[in-house]
Protein backbone atom coordinates (compact mmCIF):
# COMPACT_ATOMS: atom_id res chain seq x y z
CA UNK A 1 0.00 0.00 0.00
CA UNK A 2 1.30 3.43 -0.96
CA UNK A 3 1.01 5.84 1.97
CA UNK A 4 0.50 9.58 1.61
CA UNK A 5 1.74 11.55 4.60
CA UNK A 6 0.83 15.15 5.44
CA UNK A 7 2.08 17.21 8.38
CA UNK A 8 0.16 20.36 9.30
CA UNK A 9 -0.25 22.44 12.46
CA UNK A 10 -3.04 22.52 14.98
CA UNK A 11 -6.82 22.60 15.00
CA UNK A 12 -7.08 24.45 11.68
CA UNK A 13 -5.20 21.62 9.96
CA UNK A 14 -7.48 19.06 11.55
CA UNK A 15 -10.53 20.92 10.32
CA UNK A 16 -9.07 21.32 6.82
CA UNK A 17 -7.69 17.81 6.32
CA UNK A 18 -9.35 15.58 8.92
CA UNK A 19 -11.93 14.39 6.40
CA UNK A 20 -9.13 13.40 4.00
CA UNK A 21 -7.23 11.27 6.49
CA UNK A 22 -7.59 7.57 7.22
CA UNK A 23 -5.76 8.12 10.50
CA UNK A 24 -4.72 11.18 12.52
CA UNK A 25 -1.61 11.35 14.69
CA UNK A 26 -1.86 14.06 17.36
CA UNK A 27 1.43 15.30 18.83
CA UNK A 28 1.85 17.34 22.02
CA UNK A 29 5.28 16.13 23.07
CA UNK A 30 5.82 18.26 26.22
CA UNK A 31 3.89 16.75 27.79
CA UNK A 32 0.43 15.38 26.93
CA UNK A 33 1.17 12.72 24.30
CA UNK A 34 4.37 11.65 26.06
CA UNK A 35 2.32 11.09 29.19
CA UNK A 36 -0.26 9.13 27.19
CA UNK A 37 2.44 6.96 25.64
CA UNK A 38 4.02 6.18 29.00
CA UNK A 39 0.65 5.47 30.63
CA UNK A 40 -0.70 3.08 28.00
CA UNK A 41 2.64 1.25 27.87
CA UNK A 42 2.02 0.47 31.55
CA UNK A 43 -1.49 -0.81 30.84
CA UNK A 44 -3.37 2.33 31.90
CA UNK A 45 -6.04 4.23 29.94
CA UNK A 46 -6.03 8.00 29.47
CA UNK A 47 -9.19 10.03 28.90
CA UNK A 48 -8.30 13.39 27.25
CA UNK A 49 -10.04 16.36 28.88
CA UNK A 50 -10.22 19.08 26.20
CA UNK A 51 -10.26 22.12 28.48
CA UNK A 52 -7.37 24.08 30.03
CA UNK A 53 -9.15 24.06 33.41
CA UNK A 54 -9.06 20.72 35.17
CA UNK A 55 -12.44 19.11 35.87
CA UNK A 56 -13.83 18.38 39.28
CA UNK A 57 -14.62 14.81 40.27
CA UNK A 58 -18.31 15.62 39.76
CA UNK A 59 -17.65 16.86 36.22
CA UNK A 60 -15.71 13.71 35.42
CA UNK A 61 -18.51 11.52 36.77
CA UNK A 62 -21.04 13.38 34.58
CA UNK A 63 -18.96 13.19 31.40
CA UNK A 64 -19.94 10.20 29.21
CA UNK A 65 -16.45 9.80 27.71
CA UNK A 66 -14.99 9.25 31.17
CA UNK A 67 -16.94 6.03 31.75
CA UNK A 68 -16.01 2.82 29.97
CA UNK A 69 -18.25 0.01 28.74
CA UNK A 70 -18.08 -1.72 32.11
CA UNK A 71 -19.35 1.38 33.93
CA UNK A 72 -15.92 2.23 35.31
CA UNK A 73 -15.40 5.99 35.74
CA UNK A 74 -12.02 7.58 35.18
CA UNK A 75 -10.17 9.08 38.13
CA UNK A 76 -8.20 12.29 38.50
CA UNK A 77 -4.47 11.70 38.77
CA UNK A 78 -2.79 15.04 39.33
CA UNK A 79 -0.44 17.17 41.34
CA UNK A 80 -1.37 20.85 41.51
CA UNK A 81 -3.60 20.36 38.48
CA UNK A 82 -0.96 18.56 36.41
CA UNK A 83 -0.14 14.88 36.07
CA UNK A 84 3.64 14.58 35.70
CA UNK A 85 5.41 11.92 33.69
CA UNK A 86 7.22 10.84 36.84
CA UNK A 87 3.88 10.23 38.55
CA UNK A 88 2.74 8.08 35.64
CA UNK A 89 5.91 5.97 35.81
CA UNK A 90 4.47 4.29 38.92
CA UNK A 91 0.87 3.93 37.80
CA UNK A 92 -0.81 0.55 38.18
CA UNK A 93 -2.06 -1.36 35.12
CA UNK A 94 -5.80 -1.01 34.54
CA UNK A 95 -6.12 2.51 35.92
CA UNK A 96 -8.32 4.79 33.79
CA UNK A 97 -7.62 8.47 34.42
CA UNK A 98 -8.43 11.90 33.07
CA UNK A 99 -5.66 14.14 31.72
CA UNK A 100 -6.36 17.78 30.90
CA UNK A 101 -4.38 19.52 28.17
CA UNK A 102 -4.51 22.92 26.51
CA UNK A 103 -3.44 21.65 23.10
CA UNK A 104 -3.19 17.90 22.54
CA UNK A 105 -6.44 16.87 24.22
CA UNK A 106 -8.66 19.34 22.29
CA UNK A 107 -7.26 17.94 19.04
CA UNK A 108 -7.77 14.34 20.11
CA UNK A 109 -11.41 14.95 20.98
CA UNK A 110 -12.21 16.60 17.62
CA UNK A 111 -11.18 13.84 15.22
CA UNK A 112 -14.65 12.27 15.06
CA UNK A 113 -14.70 8.70 13.78
CA UNK A 114 -11.21 8.89 12.28
CA UNK A 115 -8.77 6.56 14.07
CA UNK A 116 -6.56 8.73 16.29
CA UNK A 117 -3.10 8.02 17.68
CA UNK A 118 -1.15 9.96 20.32
CA UNK A 119 2.38 10.38 18.97
CA UNK A 120 5.56 11.27 20.84
CA UNK A 121 9.29 10.60 20.80
CA UNK A 122 8.67 7.77 23.25
CA UNK A 123 6.53 5.78 20.80
CA UNK A 124 7.63 7.09 17.39
CA UNK A 125 8.31 3.75 15.69
CA UNK A 126 5.27 2.07 17.25
CA UNK A 127 3.03 4.96 16.20
CA UNK A 128 4.36 4.91 12.64
CA UNK A 129 3.74 1.16 12.39
CA UNK A 130 0.19 1.49 13.74
CA UNK A 131 -0.60 4.36 11.34
CA UNK A 132 0.61 2.44 8.30
CA UNK A 133 -1.46 -0.63 9.16
CA UNK A 134 -4.39 -0.47 6.74
CA UNK A 135 -4.28 3.32 6.32
CA UNK A 136 -3.33 5.05 3.08
CA UNK A 137 -3.75 8.74 4.01
CA UNK A 138 -1.93 9.74 7.20
CA UNK A 139 -2.30 13.18 8.78
CA UNK A 140 0.32 14.14 11.37
CA UNK A 141 -0.79 17.12 13.48
CA UNK A 142 1.71 18.85 15.78
CA UNK A 143 -0.45 20.64 18.34
CA UNK A 144 1.85 23.56 19.10
CA UNK A 145 1.32 25.98 21.98
CA UNK A 146 -0.68 29.20 22.38
CA UNK A 147 0.26 32.84 22.49
CA UNK A 148 -1.56 34.92 25.14
CA UNK A 149 -4.15 35.98 22.55
CA UNK A 150 -5.01 32.33 21.86
CA UNK A 151 -3.36 32.07 18.45
CA UNK A 152 -1.14 29.11 17.57
CA UNK A 153 2.53 29.25 18.55
CA UNK A 154 4.43 26.55 16.62
CA UNK A 155 6.45 24.46 19.08
CA UNK A 156 9.78 22.96 18.04
CA UNK A 157 9.31 19.89 20.23
CA UNK A 158 6.11 18.94 18.40
CA UNK A 159 7.70 19.51 14.99
CA UNK A 160 10.64 17.27 15.91
CA UNK A 161 8.37 14.56 17.32
CA UNK A 162 6.36 14.67 14.10
CA UNK A 163 9.62 14.21 12.23
CA UNK A 164 10.59 11.24 14.40
CA UNK A 165 7.32 9.49 13.51
CA UNK A 166 7.42 10.44 9.83
CA UNK A 167 11.02 9.19 9.59
CA UNK A 168 9.76 5.72 10.51
CA UNK A 169 7.12 5.72 7.74
CA UNK A 170 7.54 5.03 4.06
CA UNK A 171 5.43 6.65 1.41
CA UNK A 172 4.82 9.90 -0.39
CA UNK A 173 5.60 12.75 2.00
CA UNK A 174 4.37 16.28 1.59
CA UNK A 175 7.07 18.96 1.61
CA UNK A 176 6.13 19.80 5.20
CA UNK A 177 6.33 16.15 6.28
CA UNK A 178 9.73 15.80 4.64
CA UNK A 179 10.97 18.97 6.34
CA UNK A 180 9.88 17.64 9.73
CA UNK A 181 11.74 14.38 9.11
CA UNK A 182 14.88 16.28 8.13
CA UNK A 183 14.62 18.50 11.21
CA UNK A 184 14.42 15.43 13.44
CA UNK A 185 17.43 13.83 11.72
CA UNK A 186 19.45 16.97 12.47
CA UNK A 187 18.33 17.08 16.13
CA UNK A 188 18.44 13.39 16.97
CA UNK A 189 22.03 13.40 18.29
CA UNK A 190 21.29 15.94 21.04
CA UNK A 191 17.53 15.63 21.37
CA UNK A 192 17.34 16.09 25.14
CA UNK A 193 19.43 19.27 25.09
CA UNK A 194 17.37 20.73 22.27
CA UNK A 195 14.12 20.01 24.09
CA UNK A 196 15.49 21.65 27.23
CA UNK A 197 16.20 24.81 25.22
CA UNK A 198 12.67 25.09 23.83
CA UNK A 199 10.22 27.48 25.46
CA UNK A 200 8.18 24.54 26.72
CA UNK A 201 11.27 22.77 28.03
CA UNK A 202 12.39 25.86 29.90
CA UNK A 203 8.93 26.26 31.38
CA UNK A 204 8.91 22.68 32.67
CA UNK A 205 12.46 22.87 33.99
CA UNK A 206 11.75 26.21 35.65
CA UNK A 207 8.72 24.70 37.38
CA UNK A 208 10.76 21.81 38.79
CA UNK A 209 9.70 19.30 36.13
CA UNK A 210 12.95 19.06 34.19
CA UNK A 211 12.84 15.28 34.61
CA UNK A 212 9.73 15.25 32.45
CA UNK A 213 11.75 16.71 29.57
CA UNK A 214 14.29 13.91 29.89
CA UNK A 215 11.52 11.32 30.01
CA UNK A 216 9.82 12.80 26.94
CA UNK A 217 13.13 12.63 25.06
CA UNK A 218 13.52 8.86 25.56
CA UNK A 219 13.24 7.86 21.92
CA UNK A 220 11.19 4.70 21.34
CA UNK A 221 11.23 3.75 25.02
CA UNK A 222 7.62 2.59 24.64
CA UNK A 223 6.90 -0.25 22.24
CA UNK A 224 3.14 0.16 21.80
CA UNK A 225 1.11 2.86 20.10
CA UNK A 226 -1.66 4.77 21.89
CA UNK A 227 -5.04 4.58 20.14
CA UNK A 228 -8.15 6.56 21.07
CA UNK A 229 -10.95 4.07 21.66
CA UNK A 230 -14.30 4.72 23.37
CA UNK A 231 -13.12 8.06 24.71
CA UNK A 232 -9.75 6.91 26.10
CA UNK A 233 -6.27 6.27 24.78
CA UNK A 234 -5.37 2.60 25.13
CA UNK A 235 -2.53 0.40 23.92
CA UNK A 236 -3.04 -0.30 20.21
Mind sketching the topology for me?
Elements (H helix, E strand, L loop, with lengths): L3 E4 L2 H8 L5 E5 L4 H10 L3 E5 L7 H6 L12 E2 L8 H4 L7 E5 L3 H5 L7 E4 L4 H9 L4 E6 L2 E2 L5 E2 L2 H12 L4 E2 L1 H13 L3 H7 L1 H8 L3 H7 L9 E4 L2 E4 L1
Parallel strand pairs: 1-7, 1-10, 2-6, 2-7, 3-5, 4-5
Antiparallel strand pairs: 8-9, 11-12
Structural class: alpha/beta
Q: Strand order, biggest sheet?
A: 6-2-7-1-10
Largest sheet: 5 strands, parallel
For the secondary structure, the number of strands is 12
Distance between termini? 20 Å
Q: What fraction of residues sit in β-strands?
A: 15-25%
Could you say which overall geometry the principal axes of the C-alpha atoms support? globular
Number of helices: 11
> Taking Cα atoms only, what radius of gyration do you get, to the nearest Å?
16 Å
Order of helices and strands: EHEHEHEHEHEHEEEHEHHHHEE
Give the integer mean of the pLDDT values.
93
Helix content, binned percent:
25-40%
Written overview of the protein:
This protein has 236 residues and is an alpha/beta fold. The protein contains 11 helices and 12 strands. The chain has helices at residues 10-17, 32-41, 57-62, 85-88, 104-108, 124-132, 156-167, 175-187, 191-197, 199-206, 210-216, and strands spanning 4-7, 23-27, 45-49, 75-76, 96-100, 116-119, 137-142, 145-146, 152-153, 172-173, 226-229, 232-235. A 5-stranded parallel β-sheet has the order 6-2-7-1-10, sandwiched between helices. A 3-stranded parallel β-sheet has the order 3-5-4. Helix 4 (85-88) links the parallel strand 4 and strand 5. Helix 6 (124-132) packs across helix 7, helix 7 (156-167) crosses helix 8 and helix 10 packs across helix 11. The longest helix is centred in the last third of the chain and has 13 residues, at 175-187. It starts with a strand and ends with a strand.
Amino acid sequence: MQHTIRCEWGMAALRAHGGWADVVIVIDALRFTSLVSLAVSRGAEVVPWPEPVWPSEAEVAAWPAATDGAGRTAVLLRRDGVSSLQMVRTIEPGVRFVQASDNGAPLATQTGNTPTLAGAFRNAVATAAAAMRGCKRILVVPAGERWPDGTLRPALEDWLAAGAIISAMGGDRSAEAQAAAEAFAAARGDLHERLLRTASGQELAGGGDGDDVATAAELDADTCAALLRNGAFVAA
